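ingest -> validate -> predict -> emit
validate: passed (alphabet ok, no gaps, 348 aa)
predict: started
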Amino acid sequence: MRRGTAYIVGGILAAVSAGTALAGQDTAAADLATLAPFEPLTSEAVITKTEMRDLTRQETLRIVPTSAASDLIDSFEYNVQKLDVSTFSGYDANMFLDQSRAVIWDIGAIYGLTTVFGLKNWEWGSSGFHFMNEGWFGEDTKYGGMDKLGHAYTGYLLTEYFSQRIAHEVSDPNGAIITGAILGMGVESYIEFFDGFSGGHGFSYEDFIADGVGVGFSILRNTVPELGDKLDFRLEYIQSDYSDFAPVTDYAGQKYVLALKLSGFDELEETPLRFVELQAGYFTQGYTDAEREADVDQRREPYVAIGLNLNELLKQAPEVHDTLPGAVASRALEYLQVPYTYVPTSSR
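emit:
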């Protein structure tokens, strides 16, 4: 990119200089040598499709607001933008501390909300500290594995959130993904530790491993080139008949989905297949206390599906996609699966 810019700037400066030198001479006597700076672009000066995509991700513009309201809107719009957090060279403790201080209010708010939720919904403090062997996805497990996917998804979301917030708050996002992963795993470890003081839970090493899987997936998705363009980890939720609206704890209404987006492949991104996703998902039935009381038959259902890439469809309407609501929707669609937009091999 810089080499290409240098050729263009060099050409302009040369043209200006040539014009000045010829101002007092006969135009017909102009030497063709003045056109020498306008050399054909080399392959190094041409921006590839991937470089252009990376450039649009990294280049951001913050507009100085003229009022408190516009300040808030501008800040929100800026933070919705997805920044590149793929690098972590020279990472050390000082970098972690500096980046953590940049999002100290976010850290405090998340720990505070987590504590309130844990005391209210997870019975924290109802017993002495103890361990619990919960198993994974077995038929005889309490939730059929949905809780393990919930832990992985939460670790993934926290890492994504912290790394992006850091990238938006510091001058150099290098290392943000590592700091975000540490902070995300810190929150998950905090939850698991206090689960140890819950009579209905206990410290579960299976939960702890699932937390790490989710955090690790976020690291891979942000550091492996183009993986984020190809693969999403999403939650689908429709309130079940056995719970109030509770996306976090209503396992009977949840599905977890890995979506492979064909638009992320260079060979397909200009074809109709860019609107297609190949999905793998999982859900259960009959594994919540309310379902057991209603004698609902137990099912553990992995499935595959063909779905619509709604983000790619949204891009076809730039008058919507390029607005603040459009940007919010685009980011949300990376993490949330919209119901009834796919054809699965199995359903509730």
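The chain has three domains: 2-45, 82-224, 228-348.
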